[in-house]
Design a protein that fits this description.
The protein has 213 residues and is of the alpha/beta class. It has one domain: Alpha-Beta Barrel (TIM Barrel), CATH 3.20.20. Helices cover 38% and strands 20% of the residues. The strands form 2 sheets. Strands 1-2-3-4-5-6-7-8 form an 8-stranded parallel beta barrel, surrounded by 5 helices. A two-stranded antiparallel ribbon has the order 9-10. Helix 7 links the parallel strand 7 and strand 8. The longest helix has 18 residues. The chain is globular.
Length: 213
């Protein structure tokens, strides 16, 4: 049984990046798209240069051109591009295997359509701007479990240190992704919350199991 991976996204500074790694994060994410957590290439280069080996780095993009994505990934030595916009199968193919495509339950294609996206993993996220509720999140986790039979799933959206164990038990994802759920303010991580989130995620994986790709 493979342990569920944990990605801490929305990293904006070296201290938070190193704390995430020390707490046991498998990957850290940098948002290049407009956001309270948006970072520049120069900032990411500085942060990434301080990371130890074997920690995956992920750049988050929304409807960016291929050249813009490659530039950021190349200059910052980013391992994966995480696409959150209306990107189609063609862009994913051009970036493969260094690509993760994010969908919400509303934008998720049917099985046949999803198969057209050549990606290393699919991220399942909640609709932005919607307040999380237990029913919506449970439905998202159940969708993740179904899709995870065919492709590695990264579960995101509405995850907190209190619910991540249950999310893993129900959804059995390859990985979980958290940003605002471990923040003190947008763009600044709460190191205690990060530690507890990662601990609960790893314990949840041991208890409920994690679907390996």
């Amino acid at each position: 049984m493979v342990m569920t991976r944990v990605k801490i996204c929305g990293i904006t500074n070296v201290d938070d990046a190193l704390a995430a790694v020390e707490c046991g994060a498998d990957a850290v994410g940098f948002v290049f798209a407009p956001s309270p957590r948006q970072v520049t290439i120069a900032e990411v280069k500085q942060i990434a240069s301080k990371l130890p080996p074997f920690v995956a780095t992920v750049g988050v993009f929304v409807d960016s051109e291929l050249e813009e994505i490659w530039k950021a990934m190349s200059e910052c030595a980013i391992d994966f591009a995480q696409l959150h916009g209306r990107e189609g199968p063609g862009l994913c193919e051009a970036l493969y295997p260094k690509v993760i495509k994010a969908f919400t339950s509303a934008s998720l294609p049917a099985t046949e359509g999803l198969a057209r996206y050549r990606v290393s993993a699919v991220m399942l996220d909640k609709e932005k701007g919607n307040r999380s509720n237990g029913t919506e999140l449970r439905q998202l986790w159940e969708i993740a479990r179904k899709i995870g039979r065919h492709t590695p799933i990264i579960l995101a959206g509405g995850l907190t240190l209190e619910n991540v164990g249950k999310a893993i038990e129900v959804g059995q994802p390859y990985a979980v992704d958290v940003s605002s759920g471990v923040e003190s303010v947008p763009g600044k991580k709460d190191h205690r919350k990060m530690r507890d989130f990662i601990r609960n995620a790893k314990q949840g994986a041991q208890g409920g199991g994690s679907a390996a790709p």
